[in-house]
Amino acid sequence: MNHQSKRPLIMPPSPIFIPHDLIVEVFSFLPVKSVIRFTCMSRKFHSLVSDPTFVNLHLHRYSRNQDASLIYPSQSDNATFTVFRLSENPPPRLTLPNHPYYHHKYKHCFYIVGSCNGLLCLGHHVFGGSKAETWIRFWNPATRILSGKLPASGDAGLYNLTFGYDSSTDTYMLVHFIPDRTEVKVLKLGDNVWKNIQNSPIWHPFPLHFVNLSGSVIWLAIRNYPSSRPYNCKNITIQQFWVISLDLGAETHTRLSLPQGFIEVPFVLPYLSVLKDSLCFSHDFRKTHFIIWKMKEFGVEESWTQFFKIRYHDLQIYDNFCNWQIRLLPLCISEKRNTLLMTNPNTKILYNWRYNKAESTNILWSFGSPYYNESLVSYR
Asked: So what's the pLDDT on residue 277?
């Protein structure tokens, strides 16, 4: 009788089971590029990443906690830079992936209307008789998704057009403040129909500088201010300055007061900006300092506090003052590195408030170039 030794039966290892809720948690903290890579693994992952609920979760958990990136278009190159990488010397040139927008910039889109939640609004206008056309489309640089064309408002083309988001209804909207009038039109993405809403309390000059915050589009208005003097504050009084806020959900306008400490008309026009989810108002002070005020609680006028008061000497732009030199616009802030990024048409400045030190960058982009946070948001 042949006795054979019995070998133990080796069972294959059981597949590791990861609960769906845990996958959602982990993915919501990952960079966009990492999340997109997982879509190639299974239909389940692909479905998750395109789910609107997950897109919003990722937007709040990852996208809004990252440093903003700046985008600047040019004829020769198009790139994005984070605030951190701008401080490197020399800064890197990060060419965006091949994309029809970049290969045919002047054929398809020539104007960046604005950005919201990682989604860029691109505009196009062709002049000339029967071939004149104006349209817009939406593009996410992180996911490379480009939407189809949508009609722009028929009034004055792309001028005084801005892009916003109503969080109460999870709706992205285009808003057109008709130049030299009080008329306002909106287009909700998905409706594709422009409609008139409540007129603004003051006529719209050209051009306007808009900011978006808490479901509102906000702009600085100056009553009885001729468009022929776009930068100079000569002959303007404090009482002529207004801050107008348009609530995108209610479609109503509100007038907000300026900081009580703003008691002297500056040399050049002040600006509104949004820094770390707070409305900010910045202005020149007697050609010696640049002051930034922050509204701690949006809509509460008593919450204005002085955020920064910076000497021009420390910014190294204190000689031979002219309108262009001290026409500064704060773009974004990095609390991790105590850094504030500001720009004017001639200079791009990184200011470190901890060490009271400033340095200029050698990257050129247009004044007020949009910045964005990478996200999974898209519109097709």
From this structure: 86
Q: Name residue 66's amino acid.
A: Q
CB 366 within 8 A of CB 346: no
pTM assigned to the model? 0.81
The whole-angstrom distance between residue 124's C-alpha and the CA centroid of its chain comes to 19
DSSP classification of residue 380: -
Q: What is the separation of C-alpha 355 from the centre of its chain, rounded to a whole number of angstroms?
A: 27
Q: Is the pLDDT of residue 309 over 80?
A: yes
**Cα three-residue angle 225-230-234, rounded to 5 degrees:** 60
Q: Quick one: tokens of 95?
A: 């060419």
pLDDT above 50 (res 79): no
- CA 163 to each of CA 80, 139, 273: distance values in angstroms, whole numbers, following the listed order: 20, 13, 15
Which residues fall within 8 angstroms of residue 128, CB to CB, at 6 or more apart? none
Radius of gyration in angstroms for the set of CA atoms belonging to the chain, rounded to a whole number: 24
- What is the spatial distance between Cα 210 and Cα 56, in angstroms, rounded to a whole number? 24
Asked whether 315 and 57 are in contact (CB, 8 A), the reply is no
Residue 216 β-bridge partners: 213, 247
The conformational region for residue 36 under phi > 0 = left, psi -120 to 50 = alpha, else beta, is alpha
Listed range (21-30, 120-129, 221-230) with the worst mean pLDDT: 221-230
Residue 43 has pLDDT above 80, yes or no: yes
Please give the C-alpha separations between residue 23 and each of 18, 35, 63, 377, in angstroms, as whole numbers.
7, 11, 18, 19
Nearest to 358 by CA among 320, 324, 308: 308
pLDDT for residue 228: 52
- Which of 86-95, 276-285, 364-373 has maximum average pLDDT? 276-285
**Separation CA 282–CA 122 (nearest Å):** 27
**Pair 315, 59: CB distance under 8 Å:** no
Q: How many Cβ atoms are within 10 Å of 154's Cβ, its own excluded? A: 10
Rounded CA gap, 51 and 37, in Å? 16
Most confident of 39-48, 63-72, 175-184: 175-184
Residues with Cβ within 8 Å of residue 319, at least 6 apart in sequence: none
Backbone phi, then psi, for 86, in 5-degree steps? Answer: -65, -25
Q: Please measure the distance between the N-terminal and C-terminal CA atoms of the chain and give it in whole angstroms.
A: 75
